Amino acid sequence: MVVAAPIKARFIEPMLLQRTDSLPDGTHFVYEVKLDGYRALCIKADGKVHLRSCNNKDFNSRYPSIARALGTLPDETVIDGELVALD
Question: Whole-model pTM?
């Protein structure tokens, strides 16, 4: 029996915007409000949260409360998202 090794969470190059001159049309497309902030990845591995910019720069020291809040995620989790301040 072959047992695969567990996959370790790591930085993944984020998917970037794909520019287009026109929006797709049809009922099978969904549009959402664009919130502008900082693109960030949260990587939880070995009990530690690593909050990284899309250029793989450290965001833990810049946003420590967000990094702490993400500490309850299970190990080997990667989340790609946007850090936004709602006013």
Answer: 0.71
Measure Cα distances from 43 to 6, 29, 51, 80 in Å: 15, 30, 6, 9
pLDDT single digits (tens) 2-22: 666 677 888 878 777 778 888
37 backbone dihedrals φ, ψ, rounded to 5° = -155, -140
Q: Domain span at residue 49?
A: 38-83
Taking the C-alpha atoms of residue 70 and residue 45, their distance in angstroms, rounded to an integer, is 12
Contact 67, 51 (CB under 8 A): yes
Residue 53 lies in a domain: yes
Provide the number of structural domains found in the chain.
1
